[in-house]
Fold each of these.
Amino acid sequence: MNVDKVSKLNNKWGYIHIERGVMLRLRPYKIMDAKYLIEWMEDEKTFVQWCANHLPYPLSREGLAEYKVNCDNSEDSWLLTAIDENGKPVGHILVKLVNFEENSIHLGHVIVDSKNRCKGLGKDLLKLALIYAFDVLRVSKVTLGVFDNNPIAYNCYKSLGFEEYEYFEKEFPYHNEMWGCYNMQILSKVHYIKKINREGDVDYILKREIKC
C-alpha cells in the first residue's frame, strides 16, 4: 500500500485514513486518553477556542472524566479519539446533536496533537470524520462552529467544503475581548470517488458537490 496516497479501508473501529504517510484510525474515547488532551492544551486561549468553556479550566483528568460520563449518558453524543499507526492518540472529536430523523450531526471539540499542528493532521482528521459521518452514520449534513479569531481552523474547514450559514458577531466573551462565531455546514453531496493512477495505486479523492 502506498501511504503517500489517500486510502479508505473498513476495519473493526470504523475507518482508516492514510495521507502523507500518516495513518489515522478512529476509535471510541477512553479514560486513558485524558492525559493526551491535557498535554495538547498549550494555554487558556487554546482551551477556550477548543471547548468554549464547556469544561472547567485548567483541563484536568477529573473534568474529562465528567465530560465522558455526560456523553456516555447522552443519547445524541459520543467522543472519538484519532490514533496513529502505533495506536497513540493524536486527535479528538466530539460528535453531538446526532439526529437520525433529520440525518444530521454536529462536530465539536476538534483538536490534534499540539506537536503536529499546521502540518495537515487537522485536515486529515476532518476528512476521516466526514468519511465516518457520511459512510458509517449515513447522515446527510454535518455542522460545526469556529470562532472568528481562529483563521487556521476556519480555512481548514473551508478547504474541505464547509460553508458558513450563520455568523454571530461579538457573541462570546473572553477576558476583555468579544469573539464572533461562524456556524458552518457541509451536505451529503460531498463524497469520495475512487481513482486509480498510472502505478495502479488506489486513491480516494474528495469530490465536492455542495448545496448550502
Note: Helices lie at 34-40, 44-51, 61-72, 121-136, 151-159.
Amino acid sequence: MPAQSLGGTWTLPAARWYQTTAVARWKTAGRRGVVALPTGSGKTLVALTAIAELGVPALIVVPTCVLLDQWSVAIANVWSGKVGRIGDGNHDIQPITVCTYASAAIWASRIGDRFGVVVIDEAHHVGAWCSSEVLEMMVAPARLGLTATPPPPGGELAERIGPVVYSLGVADLTGDALAEYELVSVPIALAKPERERYRTQRSRFANVYAKLARRERGQMDWRRFVDQATRTADGREALDAWKGYRSLIAYAEGKRVAVRELLAKHRGERTLVFTADVATAYQIARELLVMPITHEIGRAERTEVIEKFRTGEITVLVSAHVLDEGFDVPDADVAIIVGGSSSARRQVQRIGRVLRPREGKKAMIYELAVLETTEIDDVRRRHGKTEPGDAVAQQPARSVAREPSVGSPKVSHRGLAGSPMEGAATESSMETPVRMPILVRRSSGSPTGSGSTEPVAGEASQPITRTLADPVKGATGSPSRRRLISILTRSSLFTGGAR
C-alpha cells in the first residue's frame, strides 16, 4: 500500500483480529492512547499498521539499543524507504526514525517538530526511564503507547500519550495468537539451617525498619529507609541482613535440586531460566554449565548465543533481567522462574517468552517459591490473590517493611543486593504458615489475575495452573533428588492423569 508522504511503500502482513481492533480503537480515541497486549502477540505490527494508515513521518522511541536494532529491522522488512536511527552512535533522521529514550532526551527539542506521530515502546516507563519532558517537546498530534500490561489510570502516561484504549491479557489470546501453556507452582522448603538463618536475618532487618518507621510515623518508603539506615551501624547491619535473606531465598538448596531435575526432565527442549539477580544467574551457569545472558555480555556474543539457541545448538539460557523486556527471544518451550518479585508486569513478560505459537505446542512454566518466606507473598501478589491464613492477609495495621520499588530508574536498577526488584511487596510474618493453592486448578484469568477489557472472538483455551503437592527440600533437609523425582513422576502433569 503506497505511503502518502513517506516516500516508500508498505508490504505489511495481514493483521490478526485483535491487532485490527487495537488500531481501530486508537483511531476512535483521537489517535492518542495506549495499547496493552502480551509479549509475543505482535504489538510492533499494531504500531506499523497505524503508521502506514496515517502516512505521516513517525518517530518510534525505545528504551534500549537492542530494541533500536529490532525495530529498525522490523520496519525495513515491511517498508521500502530508509529507516532513520538515533542512538548507539547513530544520528540519521528519516521520515520513519527509531530513537532510544536517552537520545530522545537530548534531541527532542530539535527534532520534535518533524514527526506527525510518535510511538513509545514499553510505555509503562513514561515518567520514569522515559522522561515526560521528551513528550512535552514533541508536537506530534498522534501518539501511541505500547506495553505488555495495562498501567493504572491517570499519571503522566495518560497525560502525555492518552488512556489505555485497548487491552488484552495472556489468557485472552492463549490458544489463538499465543501457545497454550501450563503454569506449575513448585513449593520449596528451606532446610533447618537455612530456615534459622532466614529468620535471624529477617528479624534483624524488620526490627530496625520498625524503629525507623515509628520515628517517621509510618511514612517510610524504601528509599527513605535506605537513606536513614546507612547513617547508623544498626541500620547498615539491617541492610546487610536484608541482602543476606534475599540472597538465601533467591537460590536455596531446594531450588538447586528443583532446577537440576526440571532441566533433566526437559533435556533437549529449549528452556529459559529466570532468576531474581545476576549473581544467581551466574551461579546456575557455573554449576550446570548453561549459558548466561546478562548485561555484561557484549552484543556480538549475545547475538551469537541467541542464534545458537534459535537453531537448537544451545538449549538452555539463564538470565536475571535481560530477557524480561525488549529482547527478541527465539521460540522456547519451557520457562523456569527461579526467583522474581511481586511485579505482575515482569511475570507477564517472562511467561510471554515461551508463548510463541507453534503447531501442537504446549509451553511449560515452572514457578519456584520458598515456603514461609516473603517470596510466597510475592507469588500470590503476582497472581492477584490471597487466602485467609496467608501471611500477607494477616498483617496488622502497622508499618511493615517493604521491599524496594524500582520500576523506574529513579532508584538504582541494581538495588542493594545487585538486582532490580519491582513492586512494593509487603513482608510476611515468618511464623505464619502459608498455604499453597489447590493441587490442580484451572485458571479463569490471566497469570497475573488481570482481566480483559475486550471480549474474545470465539472460545480460547484456558491455561492450567497447578501446584505440586509436596515441597522440594535441599540436600541438608529430608529427601531431595529422589523425593523430587517421585513428586514429578506422581504428578498428573507428567502422567496425563485427570485434571
Note: The chain has a mean pLDDT of 76.
